[in-house]
Every structure is written in C-alpha cells, then in structure tokens.
Amino acid sequence: MTDLDEVRGAFELLDDWEDRYRFILDLGRSVPELDPELKTDERLVRGCQSLVWLVPRLDAETGRLHLTIDSDAHIVRGLIAIVLAAYDGNGPDEILDFDIEGLFSELDLLQHLSPTRGNGLRAMVARIRSVAENAAAV
Asked: What's this model's pTM, rounded to 2 decimal places?
C-alpha cells in the first residue's frame, strides 16, 4: 500500500505529466484485485466512466474504516491508490475532515484528467464520504 507522503513526494519530483501518469499507472498495480464475487451491482460506484467497486469495512474494535476498491481501468486503479492513501484505515471523522479536494489541487490532478474521469473520482470520494457519514452516525 502506498502512503500519502510517497505520493506527494513523487509528484514533487516528477514535473512532467507523462511521468506522473506513468507513476499513477504504477500505483494502480499495487491495488489488490477485488474478488470477482464481490464485484456486484450494489458495490458499483455510480457516476464513474469505468466500472469501480467499493467494499467498505468498519473495524468494530478500532472504529477505523478499511476500504477495498477496484476498477476495470488501469488509470482508475492508480487514482484508487491515491484515494486509499488518503482514506484507508482512518476513522470516519478523519475521513470527513480530510480535505481531499485540497489534495487533488496540490497534486494538480483534476486539471490533467478528462472531465468524465474527474467526475468519476469525485463520485468515488462522495461514496466513501457517505460510508464515513453512516459509520460516524453509528
């Protein structure tokens, strides 16, 4: 699993967007594939151009959310790795308090994605935030 400091560091070192895309694609290779049995309609993230499945799990002991996310698109798997670096293993309140749009701005990410990819990324974030809101309410 990639950590957020690693992502930020790589983006600082790589000024060329072609290199950053390659890095994002490499990140996607680190995202574990979801068991095909878990790739169900109710786990699909609506609003994504590609197929994206989200399987959240709240650890009752620690109160932390663990996210398993997968996609059929290589670049989206890389974006998933960035989202996981920001969110996975955090508590619901930490997820809700984290400025993900600020991270996307810092990485200049949305400026270099197609509008449909950007909308899909936001849909994935919205779904995770919804899961966190539900978990925080418990």
From this structure: 0.94
